[in-house]
Request: fold
Amino acid sequence: MENQNQHHAAPTWAPQDPGYAEEVAAFNVATTHTPDLVVGAESAADVAAAVRRAADQGWKVSVQATGHGAAVPVTSGLMITTSRMNGVAIDPASGTATVGAGVTWGAVVAAAAEHGLAPIAGAAPTVGVVGLLLGGGLGPLARSHGFATDYVDGFTVVTGTGEVVTADRVNRPDLFWALRGGRFGLGVVTEVRLRLVELASLYGGNLLYEGPHIETALRAWADYTTTADDRVSTSAAITRFPNLPVVPEATRGRTLLSLRFAFPGDASEGERLAAPLRSAAPVYLDRLGVLKAADIAQIHNDPTRPGPSQVYGNLLSDIDQDLIALFLASFGPYADTPFTVAELRHLGVATQRDVEDGSAVAGRSADFTCGLVGVRQELFDEAMPAAAADWTKVAEPWFASENNPNFMGLPATAERLAAVWPREIGERLEVVRKRYDPLGLFAAIV
Ligand SMILES: Cc1cc2nc3c(=O)[nH]c(=O)nc-3n(C[C@H](O)[C@H](O)[C@H](O)COP(=O)(O)OP(=O)(O)OC[C@H]3O[C@@H](n4cnc5c(N)ncnc54)[C@H](O)[C@@H]3O)c2cc1C
Reply:
């Protein structure tokens, strides 16, 4: 660590310093960042000082909270890590949370649950609040409640000129609009204020199917989505569970379809709404029932330990039985695929309604997400990119015209990134980026 004389200076590490590797380490361990300097910010003032230092040195600025979004390595410049800015304050009277830039969704879910409240969060408890919000944020309650960023009341941000500013409906509404879905090139968020919803429990969880029942259940789910109740959010994932001791015995070494279900209402109605899925085919494991809001991460059961991963993703404008046939042929239980998880999430209703004052969210027109996740590092260089390209070739007719930065994954090309937002949003974002980051300090990182 650098010798710090000033009382308030944040810890910094250069590549040769002990602790550097730990500080830049990402949740996705396949990505190794190597910035010229990493600053462990503890306050907005630390962030502002780091941004001004980068501007003086001619360095680009990158930000890392958890490294869930680390698809490509940062190889130069100044990295600001936010994990020390980990305050969570719940105000039960106004039903809001004030959250530091280093906080993960699991911490907000736990703190809110003590008051019978819940944030509209992503699926995984270890993902960073700010990183997910900047891309929009789709979670288990997507159709009933919309994108996570629809619940933001305001951000505190350090701009590209090193100023600490507020972005909300009254102050800098252009920046507020852009931060809700515009993802990069806008500044470093140091704090966010979120509206919570009253939700102590829900009817949620997942139904697992195996072998030949996977096709029957997946096809039934696709039909189910065409008439699904507006308050029900579902998704389908075919997972090849590794044969490792860390994997629970019931799923270890098996290929299973998980139909995830979330209904933020009472149990008897939830049970009735889930009945067509439950009876579609013999269920291998039934993990669907009354769920405490504090346990909402159990719906997707995403991994919470760091590991290597590659993600490929698109949004779909629709699905039908032809698309399901292709999905099964590519990722079904009898397919030869390098991917560990192939997932479809049903969107619509609340995700397709923009907030009153507008937002830069990409993906409001889509009906589904389609994500492929690989964890076997020996397949990263060739087999996965090739299989993803094959999938694009056959599934492209179903792809939506827009994508979403939280789901697009690889390949992280400028062309793909530019095509994420509908043109009108993309052009407006460029104007806001130039206004708040005139030097272009904040790198476009997928
Ligand atoms: C297991 C897993 C599950 C996921 N589930 C979902 C899901 O259900 N829904 C969904 O929408 N997405 C999901 N994602 C995608 C995730 O939302 C994005 O990868 C998100 O960017 C991760 O944010 P992070 O802070 O955790 O990661 P990081 O890698 O630390 O950050 C990612 C990017 O966010 C930006 N960023 C982070 N903090 C700040 C800040 N304070 N100021 C400015 N920019 C910042 C930076 O550009 C950074 O490069 C998932 C990802 C994984 C790996």
Observations:
- Residues 63-70, 82, 101, 122-124, 127-128, 130-132, 134-135, 137-139, 184, 188-189, 302-303, 406, 445 surround flavin-adenine dinucleotide (CB under 6 Å).
- The longest strand covers residues 201-210.
- Residues 213-227 form the longest helix (15 residues).
